[in-house]
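Q: Okay, next protein. This is Chorismate synthase from Porphyridium purpureum. I've checked the sequence twice, so it should be correct. Can you predict the 3D structure?
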Amino acid sequence: MAFVGLSGGAFSGREQAREICAWRSADAAVLARSAGARAHTRRAQVVMGMGNSFGRLFRISTWGESHGSGVGVTVDGVPPRMKLTREDIQMELDRRRPGQSRIVTPRNEPDAAEILSGVVDDVTMGTPIAILVRNKDQRSQDYDTNAVSYRPSHADATYDAKYGIRSVAGGGRSSARETIGRVAGGAIARRLLSEYSGVEIVGYVQRVGDVEASPVDHDKVTQSDVESNIVRAPDAASAERMIAKVDEIRKTGNSIGGVVEVVVRNVPAGLGSPVFDKLEADLAKACMSLPASKGFEVGSGFAGTFLTGLEHNDPFYIDDDGRTRTVSNRSGGIQGGISNGENIILRVAFKPTSTIGKLQKTVTREGHESELRGKGRHDPCVLPRAVPMRKRAEPSGAQAQGQFGNPCGLVAGASDVARKEFHVKLTSRTWMAKPPEPSEAPARATR
């Protein structure tokens, strides 16, 4: 095939390679001059709006803004002929929706899910599932000052630096309202994991500020324990102290952070892959992409650094069914980036909500120093609604291997791993079953 160069002549082979190099050199020179001319600007020039999808075989893509017409998710990779009702999704959305109690944002949204595609007569078709939740209670006028001044520690300034434009009202994509799509997608992933592997996921508030919950039995804690109070802590005494702490902070116009812990039970051994596709790496990405998340731990986490190797190691033993188990679980159910069949234990740290009713120093979009007092309706503590988001993050992360409210990362990640490595035929806790006796071993082929 002839190649037409800059001179208009046709040529091929070595001449073609030289001509391509000349093009690249010319392009580089133009880009260098352009970069020099724009060196005084404060905004990056590569501004594609990427990063709205998570997962591979099981993939969620969220969309919509906090004060737009609605928010939602497109879920791809769901197998056909799986039972899925609107109520399966709505139940989880109800747990993360605003206006549930005095310690969360008073924004009054029904968060009613509409399944637009991929499900017919409550059965999945194997095609992409689109879910829409319409916004009903926006108050965009509360954000008029944000068009001029940046909220400290919010995404206002960085969105402006990257895109040169942002959704002022409600924070747009940086709002926690984006997590509606994660929770809906995670609900589907959780259904898949439960149906094919019996996986159970329980998330709860482990700490609010300096108020910590009593130690939890990871084998016995239930969803009903968590839902028995408005702060979603698993024991009543700790919950009362946490609620009092949030109330104290809320009345001053301030906010407070804390830690959410998630337990995943009946996890099959073998989820995850070495090096870059480690299970905890995918889970960390799912959880750390949630709004306000600032830290992630598996098992002993940072506390494990205070132990010696002998103290930290989980000794093995053979249980009554001939399975290899661990006496302790400081590994948090993951070793070498691969699940070992024990409970997966995760913790995510959430910072205090950025938008507060306190006067703070800031700057305007034009670069002038100013002061700002946050307006609008915001969570004094994100943790009660972060529990359902984190729980949805786990199913998504586990599905994706292979985002506030529910561990979406583990669900999506686990589902992806499940489909890729086990072809959606998972059996729980079968790791390293007792090897067959010599008499049961298959005969070796002879030549």
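A: Here is a summary of the prediction. The chain has a mean pLDDT of 79. The chain has eleven helices and 20 strands.
Q: Noted. On to the next one.
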